[in-house]
Amino acid sequence: MKKFHVIFVAVVLALCLVPSVLMFCGYKNANRENRVLAKMPKLVTEDGLNSDFASQFDKYVEDNFALREYIVTGFNAADVALLGDFNGTNAVIGKKNHIFYAETLDDYLGINGLTEDEIQSIANYLADLWRGFAEKGVDFAFMTAPNKATIYPEYMPKRLAPTDADRNIDLLTGALRQKGVPVIDAKSILLRAKDTRTVYYEHDSHWNNYGAMLVYNDIAREFGLEQYDADAYTVEFDRTGDLHNFVYPSTVHPEERIIYPEFHAYTSKKPINFDRDKIVETSCADASCTMAVYHDSFGRSLQPILSQSVGTLYMNSYFPYDLTVLDKVEPDAVLIELVERNLDLLYQHASSLGY
Question: Whole-prediction pTM value?
Answer without folding.
Answer: 0.82
